[in-house]
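IS3 family transposase: C-alpha cells wanted.
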Amino acid sequence: VYGARKVWLTLNREGIEVARCTVERLMTKLGLSGTTRGKARRTTIADPATARPADLVQRRFGPPAPNRLWVADLTYVST
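Answer:
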C-alpha cells in the first residue's frame, strides 16, 4: 500500500516531477490514504519482584578464543 511519500518517489523516478505536498493534497482530495502501522505488541511483561538470571558473561562479549563463549537470545517464541 502506497502512501503519499511512496507515490511521490515513484512518480519522480518515472520522470513525472511533482512536489510531495501536491501528491498529499491530491490524495486527500480523492480520499486516498496509506495504511498506518500498528502499535508494537508487548509480548512479555516482566514481574519486578522476580529474581533475574545470573549474568555469567558479565557483559564481556569478546571471547579470548573461538568456541569459548556461546550466547543465545530467546526473546520471544511464538506459541
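Residues 28 and 36 are 15 Å apart (CA to CA). The first helix runs from residue 4 to 13.

Cheers.
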